[in-house]
């Protein structure tokens, strides 16, 4: 019986097999249990011998079961380790690194310059009410200047903002008529336009607003001059030309003198030596009043610039659509910007 059991255990090839053999020989219904149970019927002489033998057999089988089980588990562990083995000396796979989008890089650069001049960065909603996008900026319904910016309406009085100027009104309202207000606001704007090399129905603007007691046109000129020299280079100058915006009076368009540049920007530049880069002016008294400021006490200036234009001019990019088509070959060139 012992030999039989030991042989069967030797052949067992899984933990489950071993357990079956154990139950078969040592279980409640197995032969050993049976022998031990039948001890009472034996003579006093035979009893200790049979008992001893049965116990020996049982212990041997039990020992073999344990030995085999351990062997089995060790083999399983070995196999698992082998299958999970990794070669730590293999060279790694290269992770392709992304970079900031050129427009993001330009916005951050411009933000840094204005933060250095004491401005705070704010934001406003892209889906805007007709009131903030037009009315609060001195463009009542039916005002012809609304046609300057063809719009995407969402409902009768909600639209995708056509400019970042509504943030002027929103910010002034929050100040409850108490200055100073000194902010810039970058963000997306939308206009109905046919997309081509120089037009996009969605683009980015950065708005600036400075309202305080005694802010003058010369402050506007000084801030913009400092900004342009910081962004394009110290040799650049600005020039102001009279213009019209309903929310500023007087209004100006601001040109930058041309420097050493490349691409479309330069070609435009070569003819006159100047290139237009932003709109600006002194905040219209009516706009100040509508947003809760006393126009007899406070004055201010505002400006708005197109971010793409600043990027095109600085990097000599010839088509605004490059910014939105996400061609890796284009974006890769800005990794170090
Ligand atoms: N919002 C104007 C535009 O989009 C630009 C501007 C901003 C002009 C602030 C004056 C003052 O054309």
TrEMBL record:
Protein name per Swiss-Prot or TrEMBL: Phenylalanine--tRNA ligase alpha subunit
Binding site for Mg(2+): 249
InterPro entries xref list: aa-tRNA-synth_II (IPR006195), aa-tRNA-synth_II/BPL/LPL (IPR045864), Phe-tRNA-synth_IIc_asu (IPR004529), Phe-tRNA_ligase_II_N (IPR004188), Phe_tRNA_ligase_alpha1_bac (IPR022911), Phenylalanyl-tRNA_Synthase (IPR002319), tRNA-bd_arm (IPR010978)
Keyword terms, alphabetized: Aminoacyl-tRNA synthetase, ATP-binding, Coiled coil, Cytoplasm, Ligase, Magnesium, Metal-binding, Nucleotide-binding, Protein biosynthesis
Catalytic function, reaction form: tRNA(Phe) + L-phenylalanine + ATP = L-phenylalanyl-tRNA(Phe) + AMP + diphosphate + H(+)
Cofactor remark: Binds 2 magnesium ions per tetramer.
Enzyme Commission numbers on file: 6.1.1.20
Keyword Cytoplasm applies: yes
Cofactor entry: Mg(2+)
Oligomer status and interactors: Tetramer of two alpha and two beta subunits.
Domain of life: Bacteria
Subcellular locations according to the entry: Cytoplasm
Coiled-coil portions: 58-85
Taxonomy of the source species: Bacteria, Bacillati, Bacillota, Bacilli, Bacillales
Family: Belongs to the class-II aminoacyl-tRNA synthetase family. Phe-tRNA synthetase alpha subunit type 1 subfamily.
MF-aspect GO terms: ATP binding; catalytic activity, acting on a protein; magnesium ion binding; phenylalanine-tRNA ligase activity; transferase activity; tRNA binding
Domain Aminoacyl-transfer RNA synthetases class-II family profile stretches: 104-313
GO biological process, alphabetically ordered: phenylalanyl-tRNA aminoacylation
Pfam families: Phe_tRNA-synt_N, tRNA-synt_2d
One cellular component term from this protein's GO annotations in UniProt: cytoplasm
């Amino acid at each position: 019986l012992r030999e039989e059991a030991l042989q069967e255990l030797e052949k067992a090839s899984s933990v489950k097999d071993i357990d079956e053999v154990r139950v078969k020989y040592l279980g409640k219904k197995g032969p050993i249990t049976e022998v031990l149970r039948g001890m009472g019927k034996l003579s006093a002489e035979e009893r200790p011998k049979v008992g001893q033998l049965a116990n020996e057999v049982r212990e041997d089988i039990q020992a073999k079961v344990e030995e085999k089980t351990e062997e089995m588990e060790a083999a399983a562990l070995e196999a698992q380790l082998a299958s999970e083995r990794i070669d730590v000396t293999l060279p790694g796979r290269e992770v392709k690194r992304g970079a900031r989008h050129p427009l993001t890089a330009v916005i951050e650069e411009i933000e840094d310059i204005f933060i250095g001049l004491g401005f705070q960065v704010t934001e406003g909603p892209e889906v805007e009410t007709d009131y903030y996008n037009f009315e609060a900026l001195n463009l009542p319904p039916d005002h012809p200047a609304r046609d300057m910016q063809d719009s995407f309406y969402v409902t009768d009085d909600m639209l995708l903002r056509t400019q970042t100027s509504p943030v002027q009104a929103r910010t002034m309202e929050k100040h409850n008529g108490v200055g100073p207000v000194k902010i810039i606001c970058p963000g997306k704007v939308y206009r109905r336009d046919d997309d081509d090399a120089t037009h996009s129905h969605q683009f980015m603007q950065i708005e600036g607003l400075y309202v305080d007691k005694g802010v003058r046109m010369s402050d506007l000129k000084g801030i913009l001059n400092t900004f342009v020299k910081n962004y394009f280079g110290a040799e650049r100058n600005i020039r102001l030309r009279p213009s019209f915006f309903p929310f500023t009076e007087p209004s100006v368009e601001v040109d930058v003198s041309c420097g050493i540049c490349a691409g479309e920007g330069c070609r435009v530049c070569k003819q006159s030596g100047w290139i237009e880069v932003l709109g600006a002016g002194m905040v219209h008294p009516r706009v100040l009043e509508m947003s809760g400021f006393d126009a007899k006490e406070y004055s201010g200036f505002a400006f708005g610039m197109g971010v793409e234009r600043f990027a095109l001019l600085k990097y000599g990019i010839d088509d605004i659509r490059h910014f939105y088509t996400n061609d890796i070959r284009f974006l890769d060139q800005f990794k170090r910007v």
